[in-house]
Amino acid sequence: MPDLFTDQDVLSAPGEPEQLGPGAFLFRQYATPLAGELLDGIRAVSALSPFRQMMTPGGRRMSAAMTGCGDVSWVTDRRGYRYSEVDPETGKPWPAMPPAFSGLARDVAERAGFAGFEPDVCLINRYRPGARMGLHQDKDEQDLQWPVVSVSLGLPAILLWGGLKRGGSPARLRLEHGDVLVWGGEDRLRYHGIAPVPDGRCDATGHVRFNLTFRRAR
Ligand code: MD3
Ligand code: FE
To answer: Which residue range or ranges hold the Fe2OG dioxygenase domain (predicted)?
Structure first.
């Protein structure tokens, strides 16, 4: 009698995360069933607050385009980095967070051990081929006890993740459509970035990678 429940099946059981550090968890393909809803949400948000390539305080234009939704969103200009209640491009509040967004972030954070996570911002990054994000820490949030939840959609990319201090060569992790990461606890302040996104084509998004990052900013 063949054994239908092999070790392979157990290892690939849906929802079992790969632990990358004491507070860092990778849920491969977790968001794949929700991708349609998430992409509808990105479309709705960006119709109200369009994607834009912001300026860093140093005067360089970012290669990734961004928008956001929720009570606040992250902005950068010559004056610095901050969370703002108003979209500087429209002069209006950011669009509300679509329910599919907040539900996913809350559920996956709980699975990673962060029960009660209620994000007040979802930053949406859009990468065309060649766009990247340099190594940085996410530390503009008030309460660093809450994790960051990140959802990748569209073209694959290489996540660079380093240590808690600048320097050293970062580890590389390929992120694909539907992959979800939770970074909390001791891993919350790790340096991380995205290597230049290679060209490719994805049925869901065409020549684009999106990343949603959910945070508790205030
Ligand atoms: C948080 N975005 O928007 S998210 C960002 O794919 C950002 O667009 C990247 O970094 C992107 O700030 C990566 C995933 C991520 C990875 C490592 C982290 C978020 C993290 C380590 C600590 C805190
Ligand atoms: Fe970041």
So the answer is: 118-218
What is the per-residue pLDDT for 69? 99
- What is the third-level CATH fold of 9-215? Jelly Rolls (2.60.120)
Token pair 């992250």 is at which residue? 74
Query: Ligand 1 atom 7: the closest Cα is on which residue?
Result: 193
Cα(4) to ligand 1 centroid in Å equals 38
If one residue of 132, 194, 210, 213 were mutated to test the ligand 1 pocket, choosing by the most ligand atoms within 8 A of its CB, it would be: 213
| Residue 159, SS3 per DSSP | strand
Domain parsing of the chain, residue ranges: 9-215
DSSP labels, 59-128? SPBPSSEEEEEES-EEEEETTEEEEESB-TTTSSBPPPPPHHHHHHHHHHHHHTT-TT---SEEEEEEE-
pLDDT in tens, 61-93: 999 999 999 999 999 999 999 999 999 999 999
Mutate to test the pocket of ligand 1, among 25, 121, 148 (most ligand atoms within 8 A of CB): 148
